[in-house]
């Protein structure tokens, strides 16, 4: 076994076996991006199966995330319910398709408040049922147990908070 002099400290074991954090972080980002695309594909497939191909997956998720709330387009973005830069376009399309009702806010006439129509509520229920089926299947398979999905979500919320702080710091 080699001897180390006080001038040459023994390298820490975790430093020798720990993977490059940048590479692991980038892999996580790639997985997250692929998961998001796959989720959109799953929603698209479900709506094609149901004969509702007039909706894009992004529009279906916007409907799902709107839920029972009545909000403005700006609130959709600020609450993290919808991340796209084209929220106004999608809301306009959803109004035209009859899934979302909109009306001017009485307090601020510039703002438009939106809420789901009964047809939009049906779409929300379809997406909710799809997600419930997936959650049940994942739970039965044990995928959500190691590591516990709650711990994974906690980690993602920490990353989300870090990113949000970075954005605030820049501006």
UniProtKB/TrEMBL annotation:
Q: Which residues form the HTH marR-type domain?
A: 25-161
Cite the InterPro entries for this sequence: HTH_MarR-typ, MarR/SlyA-like, Tscrpt_reg_MarR-type_CS, WH-like_DNA-bd_sf, WH_DNA-bd_sf
Which Gene Ontology terms cover its molecular function?
DNA binding; DNA-binding transcription factor activity
Which Gene3D superfamilies does the UniProt entry name for this protein? Answer: Winged helix-like DNA-binding domain superfamily/Winged helix DNA-binding domain
Pfam family of this protein, just one? HTH_27
Q: Does the keyword Nucleotide-binding apply?
A: no
This protein's record includes keyword DNA-binding: yes
Keywords of this entry:
DNA-binding, Transcription, Transcription regulation
Gene Ontology annotations of biological process type: response to stress
**What name appears for this protein in its UniProt entry?**
DNA-binding MarR family transcriptional regulator
Q: Which organism is it from?
A: Paracoccus sulfuroxidans
């Amino acid at each position: 076994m080699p001897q180390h002099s006080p001038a040459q400290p023994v390298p820490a074991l975790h430093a020798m076996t720990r993977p490059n954090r940048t590479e692991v972080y980038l892999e996580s980002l790639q997985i997250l991006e692929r998961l998001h695309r796959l989720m959109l594909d799953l929603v698209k497939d479900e709506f094609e199966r149901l004969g509702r191909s007039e909706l894009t997956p992004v529009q279906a998720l916007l409907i799902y995330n709107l839920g029972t709330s009545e909000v403005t387009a700006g609130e959709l973005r600020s609450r993290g319910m919808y991340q796209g830069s084209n929220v106004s376009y999608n809301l306009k399309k959803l109004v035209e398709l009859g899934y979302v009702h909109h009306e001017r806010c009485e307090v601020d006439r510039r703002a438009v408040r939106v809420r789901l129509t009964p047809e939009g509520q049906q779409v929300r229920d379809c997406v909710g049922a799809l997600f419930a089926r997936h959650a049940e299947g994942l739970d039965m398979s044990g995928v959500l147990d190691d590591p516990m999905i709650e711990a994974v979500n906690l980690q993602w919320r920490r990353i989300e908070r870090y990113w949000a702080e970075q954005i605030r710091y820049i501006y």
